Amino acid sequence: MSEAATFIQDLAVIMIAAAVSGLACKKIGLSPIVGYLLAGIAVGPNTPSYLGAVADVARVNLFAELGMVFLMFGIGLSFSLRRLRQLGVTVVLAAFGTAFIVFTVARMVAPALGFDGPAALFFAGLFVSSSSAVIGKILAETGSTHDKSSQLALGITLSEDMVAIVMLTLLGSYSAFGGASATRETSSVLQTLGLFAAFVLVLVTVGLLLVPRVLRRLSRDATTELETIFVAGLLLGLSLMVVRAGYSLALGAFLLGAIIAETPQRAHVDRSFGGLRDMFGAIFFVAIGMSIDVRSMPATAVPIIVSTAIAVLVRSLGASAVLLLLGYDTRTAVRAGVIVTPLGEFGFIIARMGIDAGVVSETLLGAAVGAALFTTLSTPLLARHGERIAAAAERIRIPLFAPALALHRRLLESVQRQSESSILWRLSKKRLVQIGVEVALVTAALIFAEPLIAWIVSRVGPQVVPNVTTAVVCWSALGFLLLIPLIAVWRNVQALAMIVADFLSHQGPALERARGVVTNGLRTLAITALVLWFWNFLPAGGGLWTTAGVITVLILVALLLWRRLNYWHSTMEISLNSTLAEEPKKATHGLIDRYSPWGLHIGEVVLPDRFAWAGRSIGEVGIRKRFGCSVIGIERHGFNLANPGPAAHLFPGDRMLLLGSREQFDMIREEIGRAAPAATDDDTFLNLTLEPVEILPGSSAAGQTLAALNWPRLIGIQVVGHERAGARTITPAGDLVLEVGDQLLVLGTPQQFSLLRRQVTPAAGASH
User: Fold this and answer.
1) Are 658 and 629 in contact (CB under 8 A)?
2) Which of 48, 136, 429, 757 is deepest in the core (most CB within 10 A)?
3) Domain housing 446
4) pTM for the predicted model, two decimal places
5) What is the pLDDT of residues 230-251, one digit of tens each?
6) 288 in a domain, yes or no?
């Protein structure tokens, strides 16, 4: 058998096993991911009854790497900076706080399981994030997606993607210097974090400026096929670039997905890559299962049990505690905590990374897979009984704890009210954020400039311009590009100095008289700090006079092109603000919180590709009359229709937002699954064609109007053209009276043309 045939056989075995096992798990209410892992264990070479079904495991693992790229791209598409802004900084703090608690506890427990030294870091890294796919599926099935606690859980798992990406970067760096001293470890971690933050900041900023524009141009000028091909090429190219920069494939794929998630084309790209993501993602999870040795499962039993306990107990308790400290009530904090327990995709990637680096044994992957299976099984049960668990936690009264917690909440509310009422803070907050981002962007560019310029010099030579070195040319070009953010920093510093001086001038007569001095003093301090900051990041080997000369030239260029540079900065700022513009907040959570005691909830129902209600209006289906709940929103291909009326029609793929009880939601889902789909001819669209039809003598159509014949409704054809005595009419009116000899241009299918000819021929007229 040829290599190509062998590889096709391997893919066939993997896909069939994944489909069968995934369908079986779906039938019993589990995530298909569990089925993919079990399928990998079943067909893998480590199974005792292995029959050699998969011949080339190494090649399958290569495709699993590609599956990881598409999987991380999908996770990035579901990540949204705008959504994080809506959820607020508390959700991000909750995610990082939960990750810190569970990482610390897991690292303390790791030596008892045999994971010492660097292996303990990889073991603890398994627990820093939960599976957003599993959590989303569980909440959708329980109909609690729009509860306040569920929204918090979704926000935490969304923010944990950032934590996991940072963890992947740190562990990848740590595996390179495993066994180093504590001092070197700390300095390397800090250096890695700084370089990572700088790299991500530059990449995301450039991506947010360029990718939305390119996608807009492609959606206007290119076909869907070309747009999909371009995004796929960009995905693979960016992933490769990130690997060349020293980071993992997962980072590049995730960042591109996160950038596209901020564009209007997100929904379209998500649909275009859905099939690729599902197929290669299945290969990734099957490959993970194939690497599990079932013969070593007894030795892995204790790590699996401990890992499951850490995920269920420590993650839920840690998340609940952090949410309590952030000011949420006990019921909401506990219900959100029990939802964020299932482990998922990042754990497998971290375990695989540690094994490939030789830092940990295969036992870690077995523990990750086993804990993921058990937490996926236990989380639906915890979510269904979350209300009881929260009520029980509310009844627990610990001496001094409850009064201290109540005092803590009052202090948080007081601080929040004071920050909201502070005029100085409200006016300066935006300027401080902009200065911080722009300073970080320039710093990141300067950090990565030196190795990049050294690489350029090695490729093109030390001198490309007479009497000027290549390095000086590159630094000058970079300086010109950095003039835009540097001018933005200076403008924001000036505005901030004026705001602070104006605020201080209202605090007393002496400060009011010294307003000019205060303003100039703040400007002097700011420009001194900026010069020292900029100087520290300039290349050390360039020479004092060369560096000073480059800076002088850049200052002269800035003075000459001040207006143009300001315009470019304004254009970039408008572009970024429009990309990251916060979407209008939906006022649904308050409704849920107020009326949950009434039994009212907001639930979602996704309409399948073929169902009996397709094309019918809400009024025709009679959702409120039949089921007692109301349709309060419809999401269709990324567009939202709020409060649709009874005349709004339902189509496949629509996501209906319903207001009612969970029992009513279950009734609708059951009705959709039970009702037979409407009979349709799937080839009708492809078979449409234009054909001429002549009105012959003796035809029953002669002497009648097009409206009276009513062919569109009775037969399904459209009369798009009419010719009489050489005069042609496009789309003739319904009051046109047909005469013998008229030529009609008709749009329809072959079957419809056959029915039409029976009516317009003399034989058909005689029969009538």
Assistant:
1) yes
2) 136
3) 423-579
4) 0.64
5) 888 888 888 888 777 777 777 7
6) no
